[in-house]
Amino acid sequence: MRSDNAFNILALDGGGIRGAYAAHILAKLEDTLKVPVRECFDLIAGTSTGSIIAGAASVNIAMETLVNLFESQADRIFRRRRFSFFPFIGSRYSTHPLDRVIGEYVPDVTLGEVPTPLMITSSDISTGGVHVFKSRYLGDLGEPYKRDGQVRLRDAILASCAAPTYFDPRQVGEYLLADGGLWANNPTIIAVTEAMSKFRRPLDEIRVLSVGTGRAASFYTRSGTWGLLTGWGGSKLVTYVLGLQSQASTNMAKLLLGDRHVRLDPEIKSWKLDDIKNLESLKALADRDFTHYSKAILANLEDSE
Q1: How far is CA 98 from CA 16, 70, 161, 271, in A?
Q2: For residues 103 and 239, what is the distance between their CA atoms, to the nearest angstrom?
Q3: pLDDT for 15-56, tens place per residue?
Q4: Could you count the other beta carbons within 10 Å of the beta carbon of residue 35?
Q5: Which has the closest alpha carbon to 253: 293, 203, 299?
Q6: Phi/psi at 216 (nearest 5 deg)?
Q7: Could you give the CA distance from residue 303 to residue 1 in angstroms, rounded to a whole number?
Q8: Number of H helices, E strands in the chain
Q9: Contact, 2 vs 177, CB < 8 A?
Q10: CB neighbour burial string for 200-227, b if at least 16 within 10 angstroms, e if fewer
Q11: What torsion do the CA atoms of 272, 276, 278, 281 make, to the nearest 10 degrees?
Q12: Closest by Cα among 160, 119, 157, 158 to 138
């Protein structure tokens, strides 16, 4: 599907359980094209739940399998601790169920063994810096590639999924890492920057399919108090910040790319990252949006004349 002139990027937002929407969109795309997702794109970037989908796609796991992951494993991943004093002294969920689920679905390979150009975002909370995991494409391009070659794909995904207040940070080598959504919940702009700086592709050759996880129609109303656990709502604030970053990245991508940027991100009622009751609604939204946007998606992936 990829043309000689176009550089196609797939960018996948974070959003917890709402990643089921993106997985279902991509399952529909695979069913339509009869080829794996990774064969349609020159670079795949994912954040948090989007990193699960991106990582799976990079090693040729069918997207329908990822839909099954969300449907069959959500209540296992988002099971409250029996004795937790969240949000005072502990994260809402144990990391162990998520570790086991990722271990069951994602093969035990290193990033240096992943042939698909892949970027997974995370945040280095020990230094206050950003951290982006990359597969071996840097070495293939003749760039220095030392740090990530021995990092397991599973560990990169788990680091990206460590959303503050939901899951504990992840130690990967010398780095203490948390959710990449803190700075790149929508990884479109960093992927475009990578395409231009490392792959040496001009902006007018870059095309992006950006898949969000839903944006809430409303968030805050007037409150008498604005403490962390009252007006701001604790975990609600985390979700709000992630959504702001996604919106900012979308706006910049539209300005830079115009019609070469296709963004799917439906309006939803629930903002919660762990609301597993909405799975069927998310799939229904994906069916609707794929029907509506399929012409634009396929046009961006078509071979150049």
Answers
A1: 12, 11, 9, 21
A2: 26
A3: 999 999 999 999 999 999 999 999 999 999 999 999 999 999
A4: 11
A5: 203
A6: -70, 140
A7: 6
A8: 10, 10
A9: no
A10: ebeeebbbbbbbbbbbeeeeeeeeeeee
A11: 130
A12: 119
Query: In the beta sheet, which residues pair with residue 93?
Result: 80
- Token pair belonging to 113: 């063994």
Are 117 and 42 spatial neighbours (Cβ–Cβ below 8 Å)? yes
CA distance 244 to 250: 10
**Tens of pLDDT along 244-295?**
888 899 999 999 999 999 999 998 877 678 888 889 999 999 999 999 999 9
In sequence order, what are the beta bridge partners of 171?
Answer: 176
Whole-model pTM over 0.85: yes
With cut-offs at 50, 70 and 90, classify the pLDDT of residue 234: low
Three-state SS annotation for 18-68: HHHHHHHHHHHHHHHHCCCHHHCCCEEEEECHHHHHHHHHHCCCCHHHHHH
Exposure string over 53-70, b if 16+ CB within 10 A, otherwise e: bbbbbbbebbbeebbebb
Beta bridge partners of 211: 12, 264
Residue among 259, 140, 251, 37 nearest 45 (CA): 37
Contact 194, 9 (CB under 8 A): no
Structure tokens at 114: 């992943």
- Judged by phi (left if over 0) then psi (alpha if -120 to 50, else beta), residue 14 lies in beta
Place of tokens 């093969």: 107
